[in-house]
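Write out the 3D structure for:
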Amino acid sequence: MSGITGPVQNYRKFGTLPDGAAALVISKNRKSDRDIKLLGSAIYTDAISLSQRNEFTTFRATRLAAKAAYEMAGINPSKIDIAEVHDCFTIAEIIAMEDLGFCGKGEGSKLIKDEETSLSGKLPINTDGGLIGDGHPVGATGIAQIYEIVEQLQGTAGRRQICDPRIGLTHNVGGCGGTAVVHILAVS
């Protein structure tokens, strides 16, 4: 830790270090001829305390944010070609797949077992390795997810590239599922 200066040094005084950060640059200059547009975006909140929730295998905030984003986009879950979901723990990815409507309640693990969420599957999920694969950089998660979806939609994801995706979804969670954000992006 020696040699740390500036704002990071202030975190050190309190015994913590930042867990990640990111920024997006939106520009007309592009490396792809595939423009990307935002079809839908929603954020919902629910109780932060788990003791105030009726269920522990679903996040109401995710279900509501997804419903609003799908309505805004004028689509349903079956139209999603690729998704980046908040997989801070293995069970979180399964819960997200179910709450986002990609499968029924209790069917998320089957999608994984049947390799439907792999790069060559019917609905590739977390093609960049997800939060767990990235070391779970909390502050950078949402933008990293959007970056991956844009790369996929533009066909510039390299070895991770899936076959011709047209619509992608990002799902991010905060506060033990008390907040959820869903974005739907598409090739214009």
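The chain has a mean pLDDT of 85.
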